[in-house]
UniProtKB/TrEMBL annotation:
PANTHER family: PROLINE-TRNA LIGASE (DUF1680)
Signal sequence coordinates: 1-24
InterPro entries named among the record's database cross-references: 6-hairpin_glycosidase_sf, Beta-AFase-like_GH127_cat
Keyword Signal annotated: yes
Organism: Zopfia rhizophila CBS 207.26
Name this protein carries in UniProt: Non-reducing end beta-L-arabinofuranosidase-like GH127 catalytic domain-containing protein
Pfam families hit by this protein: Beta-AFase-like_GH127_cat (PF07944)
Gene Ontology process terms (BP): carbohydrate metabolic process
This protein's record includes keyword Ion transport: no
Keywords (A to Z) from UniProt: Signal
Domain Non-reducing end beta-L-arabinofuranosidase-like GH127 catalytic intervals: 334-430
Lineage per the UniProt record: Eukaryota, Fungi, Dikarya, Ascomycota, Pezizomycotina
Length: 692
């Protein structure tokens, strides 16, 4: 197999001249607003260290086996089967979008064969008129194409065997799309009597930015078809969309807990409130701006992210939406697929707009919210997780807006299959976004993690235990000098951070907007040591007089001692166990039970870090996101408080006078990085124990 490491770059240099301008067929120029930083083509970055371990677990776990047995992938209508979990027919497309980058990240020949044969099947069955996928007539809805096309885009970048075939298929599809959109938005807007329902229509229209990403890629890197028509498609899709600019508007946006707002207000806005849509939609206005050139969308994008996290966000970088945006109560949930979409959007926003906040937030979600929702072996995922989740079991009741009582448990498809098919994209796309091209020849380490990037004749190999340790060591080999940039996280103490290039050590001076510190690398071999000053424990104030504990890029949660049981996986719609022949034996549904009380309040002044310091070195445990696996943990003094229940889970903790120590005095509690602490409290009530 030949890797096409620099295909995008070559074409860009020839046709886009680094500025996003494309020469139109009629000789005039029609440009897209350029991205602040260019992503590298899939295949340019290979993982190492803990990230490689995680991706390997993913490849050997549920994600890497869905094509073998999982009905909604293996027997999808896209591959000639009959199994779909909804009329959206999105199961196979989601899987494809995540498995293309996963297969290439770990170079797993079994998975490469699976994505290739799946791509071959769908491309070979492209319909006469250009439609991709199995639908005929009024079954046709653009949405299901969207994740599939994102997968095709990635495959075309990495593998030249596929490039021509994919580009040709996408141009044919673009031609059909144009005639459909011109025909009263067929496949996009639905009319009475159409087979696909109203709700299904909304998904295509509110998630359209993800389709535009593929169309923009085609426009810029393979401008071999009718560009006027492709541009028109983008304009029509935006014109016909449910436009996020209408929602991220101070007069409309709901800042309250949505469960306290009348249904008459929330219901018409539901497409903008659904958690997965929000995760995807955070990037929408930055994608639209490339076409419309409307600069006010930069501020709208910032509002989108700021408001989402301020009013509906968890300390871990999760959007609290179960399945509709909620408020800040620590018993609300976040879907696993909302997290992976949030990460993809935030990494896109950093590339599109270059604002450092998006990268900081992407790392937060990637190192905290995402890993806690997967079993250590990657064979089970939660449907939703709570900030304060002392157990993960069938609740009987449900504190969630529209998630059933099994939603907190880990397993194959608890509550609903979307997170089974969509969780795979999380870390593979994080890897793809970890480096970006800056200008013509510069390279930046955008999302910090271990791995090796190759760009042109330059190779940069980064060893690090980050986010556990704070040192990144780069071995660089370059044929000519170039500018290298490292992102300095916003939490870093710049005064104690340093960079050593060869034997010359200097202070950091990160750009205020991008967070990037730039320095020059000579031709030849160079070693760079980047040391991030860690200011220590930082407390984030949360609702109801609680705090979340951060140190560097990690959130530390009170780890609840636990035990677990498992069963055969259950069908999401009946909660009946599948026959044992359905799934591999590793696929189990898990419940996790607390083996101690959990109703603790801590005195934050007693928090102490254990197990390491700024130089966590050597290799981390594998799996790293497992109970007790982190080299770092904390202790604090705590006492039990009277803490009520709400629908089977801990209520918001008592505040003021009602918050009193009860029971046997103070105890020492343990806090671990959230990703490993599957049952946990993140939003911790505080008490003053100095008198005890
Ligand atoms: C186009 O669709 C709208 C509904 O979205 C409908 O009201 C209108 O009649 C349709 N027009 C034609 C020409 O079919
Ligand atoms: C040339 O194509 C662009 C779109 O690529 C279009 O906006 C423009 O109107 C066209 N100009 C002429 C003279 O046809
Ligand atoms: C390209 O698309 C435009 C807009 O749809 C159309 O007017 C034009 O005829 C097309 N050009 C060719 C060569 O097909
Ligand atoms: C630009 O977008 C804003 C919404 O952010 C909208 O109010 C404004 O009308 C748009 N301007 C143009 C020229 O379309
Ligand atoms: C269940 O407990 C075992 C033993 O402690 C542990 O190895 C395993 O990771 C746990 N499984 C889950 C899903 O938490
Ligand atoms: C870059 O350097 C390597 C090793 O020093 C060499 O093999 C390769 O040919 C060089 N490439 C170019 C384009 O000069
Ligand atoms: C908890 O915090 C939420 C969000 O700020 C607030 O709406 C609620 O009233 C608080 N409840 C208590 C008991 O403090
Ligand atoms: C687990 O938590 C529940 C309350 O949710 C509590 O009643 C129970 O005693 C705890 N289990 C143990 C073993 O402490
Ligand atoms: C940090 O850990 C390293 C390696 O374990 C050790 O050499 C060093 O002395 C420690 N520094 C501090 C300040 O504890
Ligand atoms: C207090 O400690 C005793 C002895 O360890 C134990 O039996 C008792 O259950 C504890 N009481 C509470 C309220 O935790």
């Amino acid at each position: 197999m030949k890797l096409r490491r620099n295909s995008r770059v070559t074409v860009l240099a020839a046709l886009v001249l680094g500025s996003g301008r494309v020469i139109g067929q009629n000789g005039t120029e029609q440009s897209l607003v350029p991205l602040a930083f260019q992503p590298l083509p899939l295949g340019s970055i290979k993982p190492s260290g803990w990230l490689k371990d995680q991706l390997t677990l993913e490849a050997n776990g549920l994600a890497g086996h869905e094509r073998d047995f999982y009905d909604y992938v293996a027997h999808s209508t896209w591959l000639g089967g009959t199994k779909e979990y909804s009329a959206l027919r999105e199961g196979f497309p989601y899987w494809f979008n995540g498995l293309v980058p996963l297969a290439y990240a770990v170079d797993d020949s079994r998975l490469l064969e699976q994505v290739h044969s799946a791509a071959d099947y769908v491309l070979d069955h492209q319909q006469e008129d250009g439609w991709l996928g199995p639908e005929k007539g009024t079954e046709r809805n653009f949405w299901g194409r969207t994740p599939f096309c994102l997968g095709l885009m990635q495959l075309a970048e990495v593998d030249e065997q596929y490039e021509g075939k994919i580009v040709d298929a996408l141009w044919r599809f673009s031609g059909l799309m144009n005639s459909m959109l011109r025909d009263n938005y067929t496949g996009y807007h639905y009319h009475d009597g159409d087979q696909v329902g109203k709700g299904d229509e909304q998904w295509g229209r509110v998630r359209v930015q993800d389709m535009l990403i593929t169309l923009q890629w085609l426009y810029e890197t393979h401008p071999t078809g009718n560009l006027t028509q492709l541009m028109e498609n983008m304009q029509l899709l935006i014109k016909g969309s449910l436009n996020w600019a209408d929602w991220y508007n101070g007069a409309i946006y709901i800042k309250e807990d949505l469960n306290t707002v009348p249904v008459s207000v929330t219901e018409p806005l539901f497409p903008y409130e659904h958690g997965v849509n929000v995760g995807q939609g955070l990037k929408a206005l930055a994608v639209f701006r490339r076409v419309t050139k409307n600069e006010s969308l930069v501020q709208n994008s910032k509002d989108a992210v700021d408001w989402t996290f301020q009013y509906h966000g968890a300390a871990s970088g999760a959007i609290l939406a179960d399945e509709r945006l909620a408020g800040l109560a620590p018993f609300y949930g976040t879907e696993t697929c909302t997290l992976v979409e949030t990460m993809y959007s935030l990494s896109y926003l950093y590339q599109a707009l270059g604002e450092k906040d998006y990268a900081d937030r992407c790392e937060n979600t990637a190192f905290n919210a995402l890993p806690v929702q997967l079993t250590p072996d990657w064979w089970g995922r939660q449907y939703v997780a709570q900030p304060n989740q002392p157990y993960s079991k069938n609740l009987g009741a449900t504190p969630f807006w529209n998630v059933n009582s099994w939603g907190l448990t880990y397993g194959l498809e608890t509550n609903y299959p979307c997170c089974t098919v969509n969780h795979p994209q999380g870390y593979p796309k994080f890897l793809s976004a970890s480096y970006v091209r800056v200008g013509e020849t510069g390279l930046a380490h955008a999302l910090l993690s271990p791995g090796t990037v190759t760009m042109d004749d330059t190779t940069v190999k980064c060893d690090t235990t980050y986010p556990f340790g704070n040192t990144l060591t780069y071995a660089i080999s370059a044929n000519s000098s170039f500018d290298f940039h490292v992102r300095v996280p916003s939490w870093a103490d710049v005064s104690t951070s340093s960079i050593s290039v060869g034997s010359s050590k200097s202070r950091l001076s990160p750009d205020e907007h991008t967070g990037l510190h730039k320095f020059s690398i000579p031709a030849g071999s160079t070693t760079v040591t980047y040391s991030i000053g860690n200011p220590g424990i930082v407390l984030e104030k949360r609702a109801n007089d609680t705090v979340a504990v951060h140190r560097g890029a990690l959130v530390y949660a009170l780890a609840i001692p636990s035990t677990n049981t498992s069963s055969l996986p259950k069908a999401y719609n009946t909660n009946q166990e599948f026959p044992s022949s359905y799934a591999p034996p590793e696929s189990r549904d898990w419940q996790i039970f607390n083996t101690s009380n959990w109703n603790y309040a801590i005195d934050p002044s007693t928090l102490q870090l254990h197990g390491g310091n700024e130089t966590v070195e050597g290799s981390l445990q594998n799996p790293i996101w497992a109970p007790g696996a982190s080299p770092l943990w904390m202790t604090a003094r705590a006492c039990e408080i009277e803490w009520g229940m709400y629908k089977g889970v801990p209520d918001v903790p008592p505040t003021g006078e009602k918050r009193r120590c009860v029971g046997n005095g103070t105890v020492e509690v343990r806090l671990e990085p959230l990703g490993g602490a599957k049952v946990h409290l993140v939003d911790l009530p505080v008490v003053d124990l100095s008198g005890n």
